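step=encode ok
step=design start
structure_in=
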């Protein structure tokens, strides 16, 4: 019996090799397209948008985009998130901070750190408190407030600005980055946006 491959077998192998090449090429093209487009932009869950917009009215130091940027940085909008350090919920409150600043945002009689309807207004309340605590610190007030959310107002006062902690500096940078992605919330909430991107009140 001859050991030479039959013509049909050689053709079948050629088709398989051609198909494999097409698949590899297609995968490469898809990867190139994804690389050019970049990673998908984060989006705010629809159920959280009205909670964020209401919470942003707590004080002038916060805006919808800033709150959303914080939430995404803290938990990727995961209501049940728990960190290795014990921070809880969508806004990642520590037990002590929640005990002081937690609110019953939905009026059900319970301050639930895992309920965004409670956690998001509490986040805004805490931000506003931190903005006042760091108001006399030199530098950008929003960055100081965010740094205080991560490292505490004492650290911001001690270092007279964003502390030289890699975690805190990275946190502030990330929140600013994601807040820029969510800037459309400011326009949606107010009908117009100021040049700085902060929401402008309707007349």
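sequence_out=
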């Amino acid at each position: 019996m001859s050991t030479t491959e039959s013509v049909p077998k050689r053709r079948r192998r050629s088709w398989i090799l051609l198909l494999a090449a097409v698949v590899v090429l297609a995968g490469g093209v898809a990867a190139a397209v994804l690389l050019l487009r970049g990673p998908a932009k984060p989006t705010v869950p629809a159920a959280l948008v009205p909670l964020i917009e209401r919470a942003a009215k707590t004080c002038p130091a916060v805006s919808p985009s800033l709150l959303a940027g914080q939430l995404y940085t803290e938990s990727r909008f995961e209501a049940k998130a728990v960190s290795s350090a014990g921070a809880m919920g969508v806004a990642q409150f520590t037990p002590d901070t929640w005990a002081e600043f937690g609110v019953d945002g939905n009026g059900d009689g319970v301050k639930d750190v895992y309920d965004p309807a409670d956690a998001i207004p509490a986040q805004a309340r805490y931000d506003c408190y931190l903005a006042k605590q760091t108001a006399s610190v030199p530098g950008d007030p929003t960055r100081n407030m965010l740094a205080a959310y991560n490292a505490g107002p004492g650290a911001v006062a001690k270092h007279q600005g964003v502390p030289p902690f890699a975690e805190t500096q990275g946190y502030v940078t990330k929140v600013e980055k994601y807040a820029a992605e969510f800037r459309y919330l400011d326009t949606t909430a107010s009908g117009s946006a100021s040049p700085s991107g902060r929401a402008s009140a309707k007349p």
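step=design ok
step=annotate ok -> Residues 1-40 form one domain.
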